[in-house]
Specification:
299 residues, Rossmann fold, six-stranded parallel beta sheet, globular, binds NADPH dihydro-nicotinamide-adenine-dinucleotide phosphate
Length: 299
């Protein structure tokens, strides 16, 4: 089997390089990959030639415009990268009988209420990022290609910057921290998403009728405040330098932190469909975060 991974240096892309390697002959590209091929999503018109030359059986797209606030200022670029480019890739996949794996987000929903959303809940994005990701989903479905769209939330990875690292830095420098407590979701590891992707692709090879849209997040839920407190107390308990006192991490509402893009308050996603279809167990969010912390702190 030939696999083409696009966006291979992002959080999820990096982990996919590891998880997809045993499945077949893997070509992993980003927009600045040295060599004859690169996958620049700001120029979707160049993608058919790339796919035509590499002739993959499976295309996994981890590239995206993920800068949620910046997308409000550059909606056309966000639309090109999050919708037009995946649309072109999906049409190529359909024409060649290839399978496309794509990632989407809980930001396609408006985040009202407090129940976990199922895959068929009505979409109502609040931001340019959410709208363009939804357009990408729609174009992929319309192409008729065999696809897996995995919607996820609050993705972190050991590599590069992340929310936990920022909180640890601030907790080492400051005496008090205020963290949003009215946005609720599940921190989800890029490694978990990559491993689920590899498992789902193996299953799909035998059962193509399982193609479709699924929600994939770690089990359980927390707020950014709960996430921050978990991370800081984990580090404190292991002797890392923490200045902030336990009761000086304070919950604060989203309204106190205005940002260019509106974010959903309820990021809960119902993963029942994914777990049943692919016989998967999704671990609690704390397990993945502890592992990431052990990696980044060397604990
Ligand atoms: P990252 O931002 O870490 O990775 C995205 C990748 O796309 C990066 O390698 C980025 O390169 C690349 N990219 C940016 N612009 C272009 C371009 N013009 N052409 C080609 N590649 C480009 O995102 P994640 O790994 O976190 O996200 C993976 C998927 O998961 C995305 O579809 C995202 O929408 C989705 N998702 C992410 C969430 C999150 O919390 N991060 C939450 C929910 C869904 P560079 O870094 O150099 O810009």
């Amino acid at each position: 089997m030939k696999l083409l991974l696009l966006g291979c240096n992002g959080q999820v892309g990096w982990e996919l390089q590891r998880a997809l390697a045993p499945l077949g002959e893997l070509t992993a590209l980003d927009f600045d990959t040295p060599g004859p091929w690169r996958a620049d999503f700001s120029r979707p018109e160049a993608l058919p030639a790339l796919i035509g030359a590499l002739r993959p059986d499976v295309i996994v797209n981890a590239a995206a415009h993920t800068a949620v606030d910046r997308a409000e200022r550059e909606p056309e670029l966000a639309r090109t990268i999050n919708a037009a480019a995946p649309g072109v890739i999906a049409r190529e996949a359909a024409a060649r009988g290839a399978t496309l794996v794509h990632y989407s987000t809980d930001y396609v929903f408006d985040g009202s209420g407090d129940a976990p959303r199922a895959e068929d809940a009505p979409a109502a994005p609040l931001s340019v990022y959410g709208r363009t990701k939804l357009e990408g989903e729609t174009l992929i479905r319309a192409s008729g290609c065999r696809h897996l769209i995995l919607r996820t939330s609050w993705v972190y990875a050991a590599r590069g910057g992340n929310f936990a690292r920022t909180m640890l830095k601030l907790a080492a420098e400051r005496e008090a921290l205020s963290v949003i407590d009215d946005q609720v979701g599940a921190p989800t590891g890029a490694d978990l998403l990559a491993d689920v992707t590899a498992h789902a692709l193996r299953t799909l090879a035998a059962r193509p009728e399982l193609a479709g849209t699924y929600h994939c997040v770690a089990a359980g839920e927390t707020s950014w405040f709960g996430y921050a407190r978990f991370v800081v107390e984990w580090a404190r308990a292991r002797g890392h330098p923490i200045r902030v006192a336990p009761d000086a991490i304070r919950p604060t509402p989203t309204a106190d932190y205005p940002t260019p893009a509106r974010r959903p308050l309820n990021s809960r996603l119902d993963t029942t469909r994914l777990r049943r279809a692919f016989a998967l167990h999704l671990p609690p969010w704390q397990a993945g975060v502890e592992r990431m912390l052990a990696e980044v702190l060397g604990a």
